[in-house]
Amino acid sequence: xxxxxxxxxxxxxxxxxxxxxxxxxxxxxxxxxxxxxxxxxxxxxxxxxxxxxxxxxxxxxxxxxxxxxxxxxxxxxxxxxxxxxxxxxxxxxxxxxxxxxxxxxxxxxxxxxxxxxxxxxxxxxxxxxxxxxxxxxxxxxxxxxxxxxxxxxxxxxxxxxxxxxxxxxxxxxxxxxxxxxxxxxxxxxxxxxxxxxxxxxxxxxxxxxxxxxxxxxxxxxxxxxxxxxxxxxxxxxxxxxxxxxxxxxxxxxxxxxxxxxxxxxxxxxxxxxxxxxxxxxxxxxxxxxxxxxxxxxxxxxxxxxxxxxxxxxxxxxxxxxxxxxxxxxxxxxxxxxxxxxxxxxxxxxxxxxxxxxxxxxxxxxxxxxxxxxxxxxx
Length: 378
Known about the structure:
It comes from Variovorax ginsengisoli. The protein is α+β, with helices and mostly antiparallel strands. The chain folds into three domains: about 20-115, Roll (Thiol Ester Dehydrase, Chain A), CATH 3.10.129; about 130-150 and about 220-375, Rossmann fold; about 155-215, no CATH class. It is built from ten helices and twelve strands. It has helices at about 1-20, 40-65, 65-80, 115-120, 125-130, 230-240, 250, 260-270, 275-290, 350-375, and strands at about 25-35, 85-95, 100-110, 135-150, 155-185, 185-215, 220-225, 245, 295-300, 305, 315-325, 330-345. Helix 2 (about 40-65) runs antiparallel to helix 3, helix 3 packs across helix 10 (about 350-375) and helix 6 (about 230-240) packs parallel to helix 10. The chain is elongated and about 165 Å long.
């Protein structure tokens, strides 16, 4: 079993290498209307080429809006030299409808995505700019996982309103008689009294209860992972896109003490967003250093689990990233990614985590550079 898992891990590693090599498959379908009684070889060739272009369209549509926009710029160049970008093409099915004089073909193509992206980059504004015109860019990306979560009990407030009313009524009467009697030398008296009393009371009480419950969100603290490998990924991707990339540690001394990598990491250890004061310090520091663009982001590592398909260890990573233009008094967002999730598998947690982080970093950097390229930033 262990050998089988190891072989599976090797296979997945090879698959990852293939993905990095940027060879992707896509499908396309197209129809042409012909003039003669039957479809000619030229008509079939036109339909096949149109289906191949549809496959490229489909690939870029799945890649995202910015990638698709960049593809529109170089579409004609791809049509002029399709063999450079289509490694192979397989006909999946064809249909000829003589009564409508219509021929339809479906193909599956293997795309040389590396050449496609190189074509896009070579036509970007930053690639065409001279060395002195290229924009400098500083990035700070941290990878982290939840170290502890602090939860709070609910605060419960209760209130009781009580109303009591009493109605009382009483009646009292008294009556008596008095008399005298004289006999001889004696006087005798007599007296009798009687009294009655009637008293009644009614009491009623009503109670109304109410209150509220306040639930406070949990507070999480994070543990940071070393980001040396991620720095290589981001540096390489932005540099290949044509930007002049500066590592954060190299830029920090030139910011007059306003930009601090440690401060950024401290903020990300206790929350998902940088504090306003930290963002303002970054912007001010970069303006002092003459750097117009800053890329910031996090890669959050989820707890390891078991992959249901391979049985190997599976780790997910959620990436959030932005690129800011800090050259003006009020910085603006030029590109944004996330939250997007990626997953890596491996024979152990460390391997799976490394695979997931690499995938997340590659895809985030590629999407950010694609958006910057689509905007014509140089």
